[in-house]
Write a structure and sequence with these properties.
alpha+beta, five-stranded antiparallel beta sheet, three-stranded antiparallel beta sheet, 8 strands, 27% helix, rod-shaped
Amino acid sequence: MIEERQEGEVYRAEVEAVRPSWVLFKMTWHPNWKVRVDDKLAPTVMLSPGFTGIAIPAGRHRVVCRYEPGWWKVTLALCGLLIAASAIIVEHLAGRKGSVTPA
């Protein structure tokens, strides 16, 4: 490991290996972790005990790890907000219909 740093949710490292090796990224493995080695998308594997690993060839390399949630998470979040807003509107309208003004 030559250098490593974190910038928000992006993890960067510069590594040098004398032979083909594995880089262990100490975050729980998930298929949405995207890793680039020298600006090329690299496949990830689960290394024991559940961390993310990347194979690298011999030499010096730049490794960038970034979690990229799938499009469905954004869609689910928007649907949740829509349902919550609908429930608030329905509750508000039901409250207005049920209120009686004293005579």
